[in-house]
Amino acid sequence: MLSVLLPRLSMPNQRPQLKILLMQIRDDEQTRLEEFQEFVRYGQLAPEQIDVLDVFQVPKFAPTCLHGYDALFVGGSSDASVTQPATYPFVESAKQLMLHCLEQSIPVFASCFGFQVAVEALGGKVIVDKDNMEMGTYPLWLTEAAADDVLFHDVPNGFWAVSGHKEHAITLPKDAILLASSDRCPYHAFKMPDKPFYAFQFHPEVDAQDLATRITRYHARYLDESTELDRILQNLQATPIANELIRKFVDRVLLAG
Question: Helix crossing, 240-249 with 29-43: angle to 10°?
């Protein structure tokens, strides 16, 4: 349940003191719960440290919803698209929240839909491109900038990550620093300079087993033939390095200051 609190005066220096707002763009309860548990698990947080903003229940919200929180996490979406703000009225509120976070230096960890709404909010462009859809686990390649980044400097090149999207960025926001890409998708992770703002087209919160469970349950949403599901499941790779990014964000960004 979303709490409305007064702004914090300083960042806690102990993990149990942190309070996170998770913006969820999931219209089914089971996936919402799974995603919540994934952020809890890989952030090494307690469930009571994360409050949820369910945008299907609260499609209009102001940036003041972040008062009292130490960071914003944003998850993925089953079907909603940042390219269809008329259909999904929460898109504009989400974009304004992203701008507010950047302007106020509020830490952001945004995956998949979160990546896309961050791109659009900050001046980049996202398109629908079903021909280059990613669904499964993929090796991601680091840019030179990753070597000096607080989250990526100790990440090996070609690390495996879960990715599931039919939309992707064709341009990043001005000044955004690209950190990772895949063979099919040129923009998979970026940060904003001198800000605690990170966005990931892939899913750091999802591991191979999480994906297998979800895609088996909902494969008709994403895949044309059952043979595609079999192929994806047979080729899944473990993604521990990608999953570690949430803990690193907590340790190195939220608790380092």
Answer: 70
CB 177 within 8 A of CB 192: yes
DSSP 177-223: EEEEE-SS-S-SEEE-TTSSEEEESSBTT--HHHHHHHHHHHHHHH-
- CA pair distance 128, 133, nearest whole angstrom: 9
pLDDT band for 2, please (50, 70, 90 cuts): very low
Task: Express each pLDDT in 122-168 by its tens digit.
Answer: 999 999 998 888 999 999 999 999 999 999 999 999 999 999 988 99
| Residue 223 phi, psi (nearest 5) | -120, 145
What residues pair up with 126 in beta bridges, in sequence order? Answer: 169
| Pairing of β 197-200 and β 189-191 | antiparallel
What is the distance between the alpha carbons of residues 118 and 103, in angstroms, rounded to a whole number?
Answer: 13
Amino acid code (one letter) for 47: P
Give, as one character, the DSSP assignment of residue 100.
H
